[in-house]
Amino acid sequence: MTDENRTTDRAVFRVETIETTSLGDRSYLVHDGETAVVVDPQRDIDRVTGLLDAGGLRLSHVVETHVHNDYVSGGLELARATGATYVLASGDDLHFDHHAVTDGEVLEAGRLRLRVLHTPGHTHHHVSYVLQDADGQVHGVFTGGSMLYGATGRTDLVRPEDTAQLTHAQYHSVRRLAAELPADTPVFPTHGFGSFCSATPTSGDASTVGAQAEVNPALTLAEQDYVDTLIAGLGAFPAYYAHMGPLNRHGPDPVDLSLPEPVDPAELRRRLEAGEWVVDLRERTAFAAGHLAGSLGFELSTHFLTYLGWLYPWGAPLTLIGESAEQIGHARRELVRIGIDHLAGVAHGGIDRLADGRPLRTYPVSDFAGLAAALAERPDGFTVLDARRDDERAGGGVHGSIHIPIHQLLDRLDEVPEGEVWVYCGSGYRAAVAASILDRPGRDLVLVDDDYAHATDAGLHTEQPEPARAR
Questions:
Q1: Which of 115, 20, 31, 4 is nearest to 73 (CA)?
Q2: Per residue in 169-219, pLDDT tens?
Q3: By the 8 A CB rule, do 269 and 358 touch?
Q4: Domain finish residue from 323, 355, 387
């Protein structure tokens, strides 16, 4: 799992893209060689200040397209640390000093000009920023959660009763962008690279307003067709989203990336026996090969933040286990991005040392071919659990499997029979998390660590999954 920076050269201006792959989001630093503006920054602002220092740039403004619901913003801290003006849309109830902008306002930063367009839909007060030079020539548009690449931002994150109104507003906002901007205008969205803030999957790594006119549903469908399609397709989103808006409205505390002192194996065992959240960051097959009884396996890779944030009981004591302090430090950086600021403790090193002489838990790892062979040999001998989302299950599943989405599993444990359980998902990540949750005496787990596409190759996929077999 890596975050990336990339540069788009627009002759007069340069746009630096700051990728946060674990959240599926992008932040931007745009500058004229001397003066810079940052759009929708993440919590770990050292990535931004590093670019500013490297380029010898002065930060003039930090601008937000909206109050974010999927991550804690670094905007307030970045503005305070640099003396930049912090900019958000007028209308939101915010508990800190900022510059509130309205439709049509133009921000000046060196040779940069940012023209504000009110583009509601993702939120009520969402704005986009049109990048212009002093002569008014358009060089790009920062669209936040409005116009994405082949999609639009979801419209159900404010209040359920506002969803229909916001979906209609989103349609008109995207059409406004297409009507008012030149076709060759580069589009720089914040969401849409795996983020659950996208209403539907996005496509492509770059685009223009003209290209979106050919593929974006808000520009290719009639209004009611767009509204009906978007609302019908809205699936579950991570539970931690409920905490992001309030944190961002209140004003997040300065970020702290330091680690607590390591806990010893005896204290680690006490926490596990007390039922506290002790999360093992190691690769999922290493976890399966040997882990501490009661620990939870959340491999530190692209999906770590989404699914730990989704399942974690907000505010509960959290202890991290890792192979090294560096690995735990990486996880620490990820967690502060969604406001999990306090760690109860950390422990790193070999798992045998951390076990302190206690036996490790293990379970085997297989694939869909192995599952097919086991079903052929023992068709009623075990349970198969599908941990995918409802929208994935709607497209089919493994014959006879029971379906419990990973984000519901902690509340539905009594629906999983004792005995042998094989667990699968779309790629193996969620199945590994589910297996770690289910792993306890009385159950024999098998992790299907495989891409679901191989279920068809193994003859397991059916468009209408059969009910789970009684055992």
A1: 20
A2: 999 999 999 999 999 999 999 999 889 998 888 988 999 999 999 999 999
A3: yes
A4: 355
